[in-house]
Amino acid sequence: MSAPTSPENVDVLVVGPAPTGLMLANQLARRGVRPLIIDRHSGPAQQSRAVVVQARTMEIYAQLGIVEKAIEQGLEGTGFNMWSQGRWRAKIPFGDIGKGLSPFPSLLVLGQDDNELIMGAHLKGLGVEVQWNTELVAFTQQPGHVDATIRQPDGKTRAITARYVAGCDGARSPVRELSRIGFPGAPYEHVFYVADTEANGSMVPNEVNVYLWRDGFHLFFPMRGKDRWRVIGILPEELRGRDDLVFAEVEPSIRDEAGANLSFKACAWFSTYRIYHRAAEKFQDRRIFLLGDAAHIHSPAGAQGMNTGLQDAYNLAWKLALVAQGRADERLLATYAAERMPVAQRLLKSTDRLFTLFVSKGLFGMLLRTRLAPRFLAFGMTVERVRRLAFYTISQIGIHYRRSSLSKTLVGVAERAPQAGDRFPWLQLGFQPNGQVEDLYRRLDDLHFNLIVTGQAAPTVSGDLVRVHAATANAANATELARVGIAGPAYYLLRPDGHVGLAGTLFDASVMSRYLADCGLRASA
Ligand SMILES: Cc1cc2nc3c(=O)[nH]c(=O)nc-3n(C[C@H](O)[C@H](O)[C@H](O)COP(=O)(O)OP(=O)(O)OC[C@H]3O[C@@H](n4cnc5c(N)ncnc54)[C@H](O)[C@@H]3O)c2cc1C
Hints:
Layout: E1 8-15, H1 19-30, E2 36-38, E3 52-53, H2 55-64, H3 67-73, E4 75-77, E5 79-84, E6 87-93, E7 107-109, H4 112-125, E8 135-141, E9 146-151, E10 157-167, H5 174-178, E11 185-200, E12 208-213, E13 216-222, E14 228-234, H6 247-258, E15 263-279, E16 284-285, E17 288-290, E18 296-297, H7 305-324, H8 334-358, H9 362-380, H10 384-394, E19 408-409, E20 428-430, E21 437-439, H11 440-443, E22 449-454, E23 466-470, H12 475-483, E24 490-494, E25 500-504, H13 509-518
Parallel strand pairs: 1-2, 1-10, 5-12, 10-17, 19-25, 22-23
Antiparallel strand pairs: 3-7, 4-7, 5-6, 8-9, 9-10, 11-14, 11-15, 12-13, 13-14, 15-18, 16-17, 20-21, 22-24, 24-25
The chain binds flavin-adenine dinucleotide.
Flavin-adenine dinucleotide (FAD) is lined by residues 15-16, 18-21, 38-41, 49-51, 112, 135-136, 168-170, 174, 194, 232, 271, 273, 292-293, 300, 303-306, 309.
């Protein structure tokens, strides 16, 4: 190793340009903070791994300006077909499950590799290039910065002085390990397999097909292209513990459940992986942050992994950007861990329960999987309340930060109305005297705080931190607002990530100023 001469100064060093790191880097760059983003590999990953993009992620993609690309390259998931013992049992429709709740009412099937390519291209458009073949090898935290050492493609090391380091470096996170942050949890006994295949069979085209069997399940996700299916499942017990396993050896067990007419014409990628449930003991250690798989890993049940990492990044980015630009005190950064750790803990518990139930052994487990679950789920999804609850949970639009120090609901706000900490609901509202109705999410600018005011005159606010949106007083707006429990005068100050910071009734500029000051935010540059 040759000693570096003069250290390079960066605001944020992002380690790992997989989904989480790419989202963080994009969000920082569009907020005017140029990150240094590095990866030890020679280029983007070739394997799809996660395949489901949830509605909340799509909403963020829309703000970022990449949602059209994602939709163009992905497939809308319109339903789950449940099969057992060779027979089709039920369909769980979710084509419009989130109708009225999100501009993206279903889910998108799009490989992680494609998500990474789209975000990587966007980042390049913002003037930031990933430094490939560049590895973080060491760092030490100093009072006002982090001294990091990275190994470059030529094998030489380079010194970096970073104000902050974001560990988006996966389950074996060197950032977490170098920081000696524990990662307690345990592995599951099950081993998953994943294969990108070309196949024909009983699968309902363009929909997700789930083959439930005595010991587990095989999931077929439709991918773009003729007969392309991503198959994920639990490896039969007798095949576990083998490093040399090939897809052909798993095929017979899939065919046992999915029918003899299933034929695989090609397999472009096959891998097995053990799954764990673990969460880091801390998501922040002074100037170091952990995000995505570096902070939490869990069973893929519910297709939450990649999406949760993206939400971590969206939560941290606006805070880091404001602090880096001197627009907020450093204490704002502590709210990242305070808000995201409970989300990860809940996720670990819920995916653990769901997964354990779905792989439980014995007669009950088998009956549950093959007989009860398809009927129960199919019936449940015909009940409006169950559908809504399922969408809120799985799509991640129901995640809230009500207990955060950034969430303040004032006296008078109706219980049924959005509360501080909630993602503000998706509404169609008029803001012009001519009554023209707008999609609120298209109107909101996630580079700023947004103040939504209803039932009162538009206030003037000082500084450039907050954008004001005053809904016109008319019957259409009143009906739309009543749908989400808002009646009479109300105001909502939304954080840049769309969550409500301050909720009140009659707007008072001094209350908002105090709120911003309490959060360590400055209204003007
Ligand atoms: C085989 C497989 C299948 C999966 N299938 C699913 C699925 O079906 N559904 C689902 O939701 N999830 C799935 N997952 C999990 C999903 O892929 C992860 O949740 C997701 O990749 C997490 O993204 P991330 O950006 O946080 O970390 P990662 O994708 O792990 O990326 C970490 C990055 O950091 C880089 N890095 C590490 N150390 C250093 C260093 N010292 N210096 C520089 N760079 C470094 C790595 O090269 C890598 O690019 C699967 C995972 C695997 C392994």
